[in-house]
Amino acid sequence: MLHELSFSFGSPAVLKKIVAENPDRQFKLLANSGGNAEESLQLLDISGQPSQFTTELDYDVKLHAGVSTWDGFYSYNYFTFDADAAKVFDAKANLLAINDLPMGLRAMYVLTKKKNPGDYVLLTIWESSQAFSLWRNSDAFKPFNLYATSANHHHSSTYEPTRFPKEDEE
Known about the structure:
Helices cover 22% and strands 36% of the residues. It has helices at 12-21, 83-98, 129-136, 142-145; strands spanning 4-10, 27-32, 41-45, 58-66, 73-80, 105-113, 116-126, 155-161. It is globular and about 45 Å long.
């Protein structure tokens, strides 16, 4: 089981260098689905090893449900909770994890930032953007919609797997 995830952002050249310098690690390259793919790349370290990144975007995996696949449409929901709100959120996430996952949801991870455990990420990986959109607008999302407010410093982003550009395209 994966116990930690780390990620970084950067240009194709910078992220490609990180991959080349760490051949023993498993990485997933993602492009923001809402912007210019080359300007909004994310490199996700799924090796479970201590982070090699300097971004301090290092997270402990509190909960995982579903399969351990890294292909699909990625949704990141970021929150900041106090201790009481974190307990309630954890309970709602656990409830979702022990029941049948929504149609099209491949994997769900609840992550907490290593340097600030009140910073949460709900990372979900979907078969498609359509499956995510259906869930996001369904009754099944309502327990999480409560937290999608500025009071919890909520923001979200979506990504899709990509590849580095060929050498002659950089």
